[in-house]
Amino acid sequence: MNTLPWVEKYRPKKLDDIVHQTNAISMLKEVIKTKNMPHLIFYGPPGTGKTSAINALAHELFGPENINERVLELNASDDRGINVVREKIKAYTRISISKNKINSITNEPLPSWKIVVLDEADMMTEDAQSALRRIIEIYSTVTRFILICNYIHKITDPIFSRCSCYRFQGIPLNVKKEKLLQICKNENITISDEALDKIIVTTEGDLRRAVSTIQLCSCINPNITTESVLDISGLPPDDIIIKIMEACKKKDLKFVENCVQDVIEDGYDVA
Hints:
GO molecular function: ATP binding; ATP hydrolysis activity; DNA clamp loader activity
Keywords: ATP-binding, DNA replication, Nucleotide-binding
Number of strands: 7
Protein name: AAA+ ATPase domain-containing protein
Family: Belongs to the activator 1 small subunits family.
Domain AAA+ ATPase: 36-173
Largest sheet: 5 strands, parallel
Radius of gyration: 23 Å
């Protein structure tokens, strides 16, 4: 039995598998062709393929056998980025890379640089970003930096100006549905149209969360319904939401208060 989480099982393995991010993918393909890459910032909503694109790039650029040596992935939100920059990144950038290695996929020599990937870079403090800027300046000849974030405005100007920025767009509804239905087919799961729509709404367009939700629902019942989606998500049923909204329109605040209290006592998520 395959116990691999479906978000990993169905994660895009190649750049061509990344959907709806034409500009970023075209640039990454050029990187593989020329072995020339600027520092990068990938930003946009969660679940749109930022991390998957980097993983695919590393796999195609270095070959699977060289990734551990050539790619360092870190979460920049740890300690707000201070220790990540001062200790882990600085130590990694100082390590010499093996030369004359070959990519087993392309049978071509590897680039003369390695990659540092910083996830949640928008959670770094200004001091941490300032320290990172200095490291980027010193080690640019042997290291390329890729920053991943949801909110580009939280990246300081000195970092922003040293990187090429690519926005990962929200994936269109029809593309999400097609992807999720294909997963259901592969896993021998049936799902109603209403349940599929409910998953997309409750996961706020995050394809990664949607895949996880389908896997969780299928553990309970391979026939996924709206009710099972609501049970997994912890959200109150639609009829309760409608009842509260109608009471709000009538300005029946006491009834609204009682309904909300009942929802909380029933253990539903009201955040």
